[in-house]
Design a protein that fits this description.
The complex is a heterodimer.
Chain A lengths: L2 H29 L15 H7 L9 H10 L14 H24 L24 H4 L10 H13 L5 E6 L4 H13 L3 E5 L7 H7 L10 E5 L6 H14 L7 H11 L2 E6 L4 H12 L4 E3 L17 E3 L10 H16 L28 E5 L6 E7 L10 E4 L10 E3 L1 E8 L8 H13 L4 E4 L6 E5 H5 L5 H15 L5 E7 L2 H24 L7 E5 L11 E3 L12 H10 L7 E3 L3 E3 L4 E2 H10 L25 E6 L4 E6 L12 H8 L8 E4 L19 E4 L1 H6 L1 H10 L5 H4 L9 H11 L11
Parallel strand pairs in A: 1-2, 1-4, 2-3, 4-5, 5-6, 7-10, 8-11, 9-14, 21-23
Antiparallel strand pairs in A: 7-13, 11-14, 12-13, 15-16, 15-17, 18-19, 20-21, 20-22
Helix pairs in contact in A: 1-3, 1-4, 1-11, 3-4, 4-11, 6-9, 7-12, 9-10, 13-15
Chain B lengths: L8 H13 L4 H7 L11 E2 L7 E2 L13 H35 L11 H10 L9 H17 L13 H10 L6 H11 L8 H31 L5 E5 L9 E7 L2 H11 L2 H9 L5 E6 H11 L3 E3 L4 H6 L5 E4 L8 H7 L3 E4 L10 E2 L7 H16 L12 E5 L3 H7 L2 H4 L3 H9 L4 E5 L11 H12 L2 E5 L1 H8 L14 H10 L4 E3 L6 H14 L11 E5 L5 H12 L3 E4 L9 H15 L2 E4 L3 H19 L15 H12 L10
Helix pairs in contact in B: 3-5, 3-7, 3-8, 3-22, 4-5, 4-8, 5-8, 7-8, 8-21, 8-22, 8-23, 9-11, 9-14, 18-24
The chains are: A alpha/beta, B alpha/beta.
Chain lengths: ~750, ~650
Amino acid sequence: MSRYIATRAIRGANLIVAEAERMLKEAIAELGPDTPVKFTNTAYYLPVILAFTGREVSKLGDLVPVIEDAKRILHPIPGDKLWLPYLGETLDCGMATLLAEEAIEGIRFARGLEPQPITWEGSYIPSTSFTSPDMEAQAGKRLNGPIDDIQLRAWGIQLVDGRMPGFAAIVGCAKSNEVAVQIVRELQQRNILVFLCGNVNGRSIIHQLMEEGVEMGYDTYIIPFGTDTIAAIYPLGFAARSALTFGGLKPGQAREILLYNKYRVFAFVLALGEVDDLKYATAAGAINYGFPTIADTVIPQILPTGVTTYEHVISMPFDDIEGKDDLERAKKLVQRCIEVRGVKIKITEVPIPVPYGSAFEGERVRKADMRVEFGGKYSRCFEYLKMSDFDAVEDGKITVVGPGFEDVPPEGSMDMGIVVEVAGRKMQEDFEPVLERQIHYFINGASGIQHIGQRDIAWIRISKAAAEKGFKLEHFGKILYARFHGDFGAIVDKVQVTIYTDKAKMEEWLAKAREAYDRRNRRLADMTDESVEEFYSCTLCQSFAPNHVCVVSPERLGLCGAYNWLDCKASHQINPTGPNQPIRKGTCEDPVYGIFSGVNEFVYQHSHQSVQQVSMYSIMVNPMTACGCFECIAMVIPEANGIMVVSREDPSMTPAGMTFSTLAGMAGGGLQTPGVMGHGKYYLTSKKFISADGGFKRVVWMSSFLKETMAEELKAVAEREGDPDLIDKIADERVATTVDELLPYLEEKGHPALTMPPLF
Amino acid sequence: MTDQKSIDPAVCDLLEICESEGISTAFDRAEQMKPCPIGSKGACCKNCAMGPCRLTKEGQVGICGATIDTVAARNFARMVAAGSAAHSDHGRDMALTLLAAATGHAPDYKIRDVRKLYEVASFLDVKTDGRPVNDIAKEVAEKALIEFGRQQGNIIYLQRAPRKRQQIWQNLGIAPRGIDREVVDIMHRTHAGNDQDYKSLLMSSLRTALADGWGGSMLSTDITDILFGSPVPLAARANMGNLSEDQVNIVVHGHEPTLSEMILVAVNDPEMIEYAKSKGAKGINLTGICCTANETLMRQGVPTIGNFLSQELAIATGAIDLMVVDIQCIMQALAPLTKQFHTLLVTTSAKAHIDGVTHIEFDEHRALEIAKNIVKMGIDNFVNRGDVHIPKDIDQMVVGFSHEYINYALGGFYRGSFRPLNDAVIQGRLRGVAGVVGCNNARTCQDAAHTYIVRELIKNDVLVVMTGCGAIACAKYGFLSPEAAQYAGPGLREICEAVGIPPVLHMGSCVDNTRILTVLSQMATEGGLGEDIADIPGVGFAPEWMSEKAISIGCYFVGSGVYTIFGSESPVANSPAVVRFMSEGWEEHVGGKLEFIPDPEEAVRKALEHIDKKRAALGLVEYDPTRYGQSGDALMLKLLEKVEEGTLNLYSAKL
């Protein structure tokens, strides 16, 4: 601290705690102590309060002891002379501030004032398919409010695989709109989550970005929480939940949760514009997490380290930053933020005329903003990656065979095929699909380009803005060339890209591609757990869930859906000391349950002795643990003698009496809970899907989302199981959200689980 | 240094009065009587009746054949034993008080720090779950008392040291067994015709000192905190100006807080205050001297009027109505001196009578009653006060840096740890750390060496912790105030500004040097500064030492791995072999060494060399003060002046 900052932070803390107390008294008097207090879609109550005090706040009356907690850790302002030490005291006041701020947001929720309504010219349409339907948000009338659990988990995998290195909590208002956009773009390019809140004299960076038409939402990594400082509690609640969700920590383990954040969540506060008492107090709270503050104005610096990994408070007066213009200054400001927090970033320079980074992956190109599209309803598009002989590939050669899109009318479409030929001493044919699937992520990283689907159902759009900046077909090649070398340099030595728009050539290659797709399908489908000697581990998520080990076999893919056995094998080749290690199966101790001595040994060792045995094929006996990134959760419904499967996308209530997000708390964190299991979607289609417990026929309830998006695959499973109408016999949230509704449905449809041997 | 007797203006002022009135003080007696040239070098052996033998020539031996080396080492060992005995016996009394308090036999005492009790219980393997506080306290007291009489195994608290340090003690066979046993061991060992190998004598001395540092003293600190509360920072005042012209002045002096805490209760008793007023006083003013002062200073903010050499001068103010003393460092000279003034001197410890002085024996079972009696005697004496001469000097300080609080200060309730301190040393903001402790010594100018060394250390970015009379010395010149950060080097100043601390931390009384051991252990285990106390870039000083307790303290720091520098001439100077072994020999064995360096400039130079040597051994960046100092409020405050001019641009720091 500095005495200047300590004085202001402590003053701010005392004021906000008093304010929270006053608001609470009024709210209780007006609405009654039993009025519910609830953040949207979370099982973590008010997460900061839960994490640091262990208190489960669900109604206004529950906040009374929280305010008392906050008051207990308040301290007086240090004197002008002969002052007493203030660092520890200021940090405690920071915690009191966070408790008070979250209490205030809770009260606002109780009053229906949160998420904050948009009362100015502007709208926020979260560009996401993940969140639960919210008509007001859809209509753009309110800001984001707290991040829901589903999104928290969805970001988990990106946080651990480095696609998302950390988050920036921006508080205040940038010097100009131009600077605001530049700062956000710089962060996006580095795939850093951008959390927005606060204002300076009523004007917030949220207003600035709305005025500039910047797309905000989960998919663009830019979340507008609220236009006051108090909304900064939402990113801090997100951080607290990440420790609870992925760190296996328990509510009330305040110190451990804060240290987890210091060491694993790379976040910082960027204070734009004047810093007032409440901002200092909130920043003091953030420093407890190990999150430093960087200001673009003159404030006292706190350079010694310790509570944070690097400096605690940095002042980088914007006008004093060396640079030819404000844009360059903004760029340097962001660079400094990254240094101060020690955010690890892997950047591959991609030489294209538009900004590039994973943060742009989720960007949509709407029809009206579209210059041209490939694939979709009106044209064909495919992508195919093949391994070729070393001599047949000319590294860096990018060819466009056929015309560009210059002659296509605006908002029109044309056919295109992207063929990537790679060669490398360590390259194997097995890796082709793994690498090919990266095309989706790589192309999506360009700002103004949208990529959906894969193989011959790829669908690519180029926005007008991107085309105006000079984006051409050859740039697809440049992206792929740079990224394959950057990310897969260990196995790929040469990359050559050919883009076909010429009709005849395109069709010729499409045929070749389809042959390859077919061949690959058969090869993957033919592989069984018995046909290999090794499974693979995946400990990517151990930075978040330290005791969790995924065991990936040919017939059971990783629970996040991102890694199947071949992917792990490829990943191991690419990085032999990385998170995917071969596991010798060893002795098969039980072929039905899928218990292998080698697997047990590996898991015991790598779960830090917390998991002793894993059954690969059972939900009932020592099921595999989960980190929190699972696509689906399966849970036993004892009354139905079966299991239900709820998908991440499904926000509805389930017959288990819990939503996905509540269930996720039970399924995640590396804990073995018989009867509950996180898994990948495509495990449903495996012959080994809980085969020890009766297999797919045990599924009595399933999110309609799964039924619809996997209709073809599930139909094949039903046929394989000898019950072609099985999918129709499985209930979903449209017919049953309670056990009482479920059982009559199963009776009526004659679901096979009812007559299967008892699960218990 | 100069011929000046003291640099304390209040003391100098009073010395002039003493001189004019023909009052003799320790300062005068030191001038009149030079130290015995034989005894001061450790050349005299009077351990049997064949002597005393004085060994002044090279190769000379005593009647029994004892060599110069044996005699020097034996004398030194006995100093260690006496010092260790003094501290540890103090600790034993604290344990007995805790036991009496826990069993209801000392109703005036309560367990004030339950959290600390739990912590100590866990060290001593005392179960706490679901037990009443007094039950736990009773068992803690009993377990503590066992440590004094332990015959087998090792003192439990050794486990609080870094693992590597414990191993070193075990390997060398100097892990202390029982606290009392090690003192007895030295007394036996140094008896005529026993241990006559100086190396063995000196290694055993370390073991006895460790029994003090990691045993008696550490228990004393812990139990005192349990009974009276672990110190937290508070603002307080020092020096003679704290005596009052119109209130009853009662002064506590000595080392134990048991009685003084009760005196404090008594002086705040409205009945007592009324009584004082009935005698024409405006109230009752309590102040202290030496470490009893430190105890009540750091917990209750009772002002200190001086350190060891100030005790006679305080009487010479004529303003003290009653001085109550307990144990240790109480000059017998006070007895005749107080007779020259109206001051009433009261001894209270069964272990510290003074011929001709009123003795009211302290008994913890009737503590408050006794305290009130004593206070009442002081009030009654107010009317006898004659002319007073109270110097105006008052200095401000912040005290109360227990190791628990330092941990809190560096991160608060949730994030408290030693990480920021270690980081500061690792990065070179702090060149290192130093403990500057110990007494005053009438052979050297009072406070001069303390203040010189501390000023130089903080200027060189060395964070200083202090205890005892050394701490009071520096308090008198403002070094313990947070404003003193202006005298610190750029890196230390940054740390002071970040945490809000003075560059010199008051950690308690001389028995509380164990708090420094705890801090060093926590630094070693925090990571980044090696695995042992000996790896830390740090030094210990006792620039103005005089007591045997100081020797024991010095030795337990050496035994814990610290380079420790004492002022004044070496008490073993007669034996070059012993001098060498204490330096090179001990450093080779335990990592720490003891050297006597009378010249403070040389002492500082060698200390900084040692710190830099340890930094290099750890592979830390070379200390470079120019790299730091960018933190802080100065620029901001300068900029804010522009607000008044109406030209402030928040986006630029250019003035």
